[in-house]
Amino acid sequence: MDLIFSLIINGLATGMLIFLLASGLTLIFGLMHVLNFAHGGLFVWGAYAGVFSYAYSGSFIVGIIVAILTGLVFGFITEKLIITPVYGNLVQQILITLGFMLVLQEMIKVVFGPNVVAVKVPELLAGSWQLGDIIIIKYRIFIIFFGFIIFGLFHYMLTRTKIGLVVRAGVMNSEMVQALGINIKRIFLVVFMTGSALAALAGVLFAPYSGAIYAELGMEFAIMAFIVVVIGGMGSFQGSLFAAILVGLAGSFMAYYVPYLSLAVNMIIMVVVLIFRPQGLFTTAKG
Amino acid sequence: MNKPILLSRSNIFLFIIVLALIAFPFVMDSRTLTILVTQILIFGILAMSYDILLGYTGIVSFGHAMFFGIGAYCTAIMLNDFESTIFVFIGSIAVGMVIAGILSFIVGLLTLRLKSHFFAMLTMAISGLLLVVAEKWRSVTKGNDGFTFKAPEVFKDRIVFYLVVLALIVIVFIVLKRFVNSPLGRVLIAVRENEQRTKSLGFKTLYYKVIASVLAGVIASLAGSLYAVSLRFVNTAVLTMEITLDALLMTIIGGVGTLIGPLVGAVVIESAQHYLSGLARDFPIFERWIIFFGIIYILAVIFFPKGIVGTIQAKYFQWKDKKAQLNVVPLSKNKESSK
Amino acid sequence: MMESLLKLDNINTHIGQYHILQGVHFEAKEGEVSVLLGRNGAGKTTTLKTIIGLTPATAGSVTFLNQDITKKPTYDIANLGIGYVPEDQGVFADLTVEENIKVAMRKENDESKEKLEYVLNLFPDLKKFWKKAGGNLSGGQKQMLAMARAFVNDSKLLLIDEPSKGLAPIVIEKVMEAIVEMKKQTSIVLVEQNFYMASKIGDTFTLIDDGRTVRHGEMKELIEDDELKHKYLGIG
């Protein structure tokens, strides 16, 4: 029982981090059909910028804020410099965002050094609670909690505010949104920057969770996020939460029971989804 | 009317280059240089196979390394476990090609019906999965540490191996050139230009795309086999994204959809890699040479999407058109067409 | 005569490599229903899309309220007061009727509330299904939602693409009534295959064939001209 409980906690925490990464990716794709292969680069930049400013200032909150700002700034630069010039050309977009991913990854090594950086859990969140037989690691609960708050916040924005409605409408039919007098490119820039900030946030939250960060992390996590986006349905915010938790839990249980299948399981879920529901689990047809 | 003349002229040009390449190791007695050129040729084969996908069919695969890796591992394992003879070597190439062919057939059938971004992601994920499997399956692959093996006796002489690779690249080039100029290749180009339209003309585009991906996979496996023998060593690096990216860079920088372009790209990238990593000993910044490449690559995608060969070709045709126009077309009509 | 509200002069439009429009002339006057007629594939839908800027013209000019809007982006054109109801209605399927309308409302003040009330009276069904997802509406309801949405979007001119398509005759009657009613508030450009509907509510007509304007005139003239109808519309 205690084992299953901690596996669930593990899976949820990982799932939440992937969700933060995937939710931005899915909205960026849904709105402008841009598949951003550089998204993982923003994850590592968030992790490094956050961790270094956390170490410098001694405050994890500062680290989180710096990570988010890094995400926003990098998101702005990426959209303006990388996405806009090749807008509408899918193959070029894939190629160029991947190239930018490489640059971001290597720049990490130049700016922060090529070595693995160890990260400690902030004091307030360190340690664990004991409930009978069950040991609960505080930081994991923090991630899950944080993830749900972010989900709630964005869910509220997407369903209750005008800009949220416009974003969702744009995902469904971007031409029509423009024909209603809304400059979708400006909306897209906002979404892109927000998505990048979420990726950077995921990075800085991930750092103490794993205890170590390195430049190649971005690519590894980006692949997970892509899998999640495909499973949940491109453009679906709820879908990305569901799929991220699914992938997180599956990974956590498999890692314990059938370790060599732990990575394969996500692939298998994705392949099954693609065969039976290629549009993903949560996407409805355009109407 | 111009085409056959142009083709034969460029054929003569290629012929001269091949002759020069044959003569090269005998003229320049440098082991490092021979190894470098061998490496260039091997990656040239890989890049050409990638061009079949990207340049001629218009699909972006991020999983090309898996076929390269399959070839490399087949050859390495067979040469290590059986006798290290030329026959085993040939057999291992064949086995690698068959496995790569089957795998690319299955992957293609499963993924090519999807839109290009799904395809790109899926190939990335599948090849990532294969890499993980290879890293976990240490009894066979020895993981990231890899293992060394003996190359067949004849290849002890680097020049012999070089000439074999050269012969193979010429064969591959001719085969691929024939392929892209065949009716089948024309359909692929039609798929690249407008898949929907090709479909509505009654072509089963999936079928053609699968053929292209199988061909590309098989050739990539050949390149992998040669690569393993050239190093006499193999580890999981042959399955990494970097291999795919190398092929991608070479194709883009050289010029997509030209076949010659990827070869030019291979020359540029491989020699730059070689010299820049040499420079890194004196100037540490060059350790991060990927950054320069990434930036050049990004700029190339934006400003120079046709690549080196593509741009030269376009310029050449432009010049040719102009000349033809000046000679034939009356002035008034010339004005009309230049509008 | 009244000032022309919208004017298309020798419009040429390419989609990809195809030269779809090759010389469309068209004029819409204030307070009128101007109907674009022509066979399937003649270029009527593309004409509307060119006006709203979704497929910008490659040559010629579009003038709206004495402003050249040929090269303007779609959202600017919409903001000048052109509303668009596409052939597939473009209803946001996952959004409710209310949310669909909310996306279209530029601001919330007395004037916009008045407009909203007006369309809801015009289309009582929308009020009934206020919280229903757009994707779950019937074809006729979707059409009404799309028209209401374009109307509350502060439009001085509505472009409506084949509103009768796929609707039952009784629903078509309702849509027609609504258009006649809306005409009191705004001008309308209508693309219509259904000649009965076009002839009943149209004031002027423009015949397009093979991407060119072939005839322009009062609807009365067309109704009486059997030869013209036969030649370009295959009726009469």
TrEMBL record, chain A:
Main location (coarse class): membrane
Topology in membrane: Multi-pass membrane protein
InterPro entries linked: ABC_transp_permease, BCAA_transport_permease
GO cellular component: plasma membrane
Keyword field contains Transmembrane helix: yes
Localization: Cell membrane
Keywords from the named record: Amino-acid transport, Cell membrane, Membrane, Transmembrane, Transmembrane helix, Transport
Example of a GO MF term: transmembrane transporter activity
Record field: transmembrane: 7-34, 54-74, 86-104, 139-158, 187-209, 221-250, 257-276
An example Gene Ontology biological process: amino acid transport
Family: Belongs to the binding-protein-dependent transport system permease family. LivHM subfamily.
This protein's name: Amino acid/amide ABC transporter membrane protein 1 (HAAT family)
Species the sequence originates in: Ureibacillus acetophenoni
TrEMBL record, chain B:
Domain of life: Bacteria
Stored InterPro entries: ABC_transp_permease, LivM-like
Entry's transmembrane regions: 12-28, 34-53, 60-79, 85-110, 117-134, 159-176, 206-227, 247-269, 289-309
Main location, first listed in the record: membrane
GO cellular component, one term: plasma membrane
Alphabetically ordered keywords of this record: Cell membrane, Membrane, Transmembrane, Transmembrane helix
Topology of the protein relative to the lipid bilayer: Multi-pass membrane protein
Name of this chain's protein: Amino acid/amide ABC transporter membrane protein 2 (HAAT family)
Organism: Ureibacillus acetophenoni
From TrEMBL, chain C:
SMART domains for this protein: AAA
Biological processes annotated in GO: L-amino acid transport
InterPro entries per the UniProt record, alphabetical: AAA+_ATPase, ABC_transporter-like_ATP-bd, ABC_transporter-like_CS, BCAA_Transport_ATP-bd_LivF, P-loop_NTPase
Keyword annotations: Amino-acid transport, ATP-binding, Nucleotide-binding, Transport
PROSITE patterns: ABC_TRANSPORTER_1 (PS00211), ABC_TRANSPORTER_2 (PS50893)
GO molecular function: ATP binding; ATP hydrolysis activity; branched-chain amino acid transmembrane transporter activity
Record-stated family: Belongs to the ABC transporter superfamily.
PANTHER family: ABC TRANSPORTER ATP-BINDING PROTEIN, HIGH-AFFINITY BRANCHED-CHAIN AMINO ACID TRANSPORT ATP-BINDING PROTEIN LIVF
Protein name: Amino acid/amide ABC transporter ATP-binding protein 2 (HAAT family)
